[in-house]
Design goal:
Layout (H helix, E strand, L loop, with lengths): L1 H27 L4 H9 L5 H7 L5 H13 L3 E6 L5 E6 L1 H4 L2 H19 L2
Antiparallel strand pairs: 1-2
Length: about 120
Amino acid sequence: MITDKINQEKKQECVKAILPVKDALEVLNGRWKIPIIISLKFGNKRFKEISRDVQGITDKVLSKELKALEVNQLIARTVFDTFPPTVEYSLTEHGFSLHNVITALGEWGTSHREKIIGK
């Protein structure tokens, strides 16, 4: 009886721990969103500047990912009244809140690379 209660509590804790991680992974899914965020961490940029930083991404995919990041309020898109119009992307405060997560991922990635391939 007590064991069943403990097992039920552990199951609830597990589900409670998984939900926010699933939410975060849903927002940051794919191979491009985090590199785009890292690019913008170094300053506001125009589309082509981001494209040069995030090597291998197509313009179509970059456009789609920028829209998704904007919907999730991680980046802001500013259109300047110039001819032709200038569009600049920047991290929002919410986007900057990912700093510790991205730093931890980078540190883990470096450690993992050293462990697996020795570099």
